[in-house]
Amino acid sequence: MKKSEFISKSRNFEKRFQKNQTIFNMLFIIIVIAILYLALSVERLSSGYGLFLPTVFIALFFVNSLLSNAVRRYQISNSGLGCKSCKENLLAEKGDIAIATGNCPICGEAAFNDVNKLD
Ligand SMILES: [Zn+2]
Fold it and tell me: How far apart are CA 111 and CA 98, in angstroms?
């Protein structure tokens, strides 16, 4: 991949990545509200179930962080933004270093297919 291709691809990736994270967070909030609503309507019928709600919320936050990490890893591994030599993902500051120097910050080899001219 050429450096210019990498730059435009990485910009598109960041936009898509943020959009997906926003959608994911919105879905999570909707699920939390739905569960809260259900729990409150159940509570009206049968009172006192002690640790049920806190347990559900702790479980939900745990599931959310696991899921969002999985989604993030999937997106990153499918980004195609890898070093041409070692195939390591060049995202965020690693990508910035690669763009600035032309070399991969992990293996030190040329990160892109076009030669980095110093003129
Ligand atoms: Zn590399």
Answer: 6
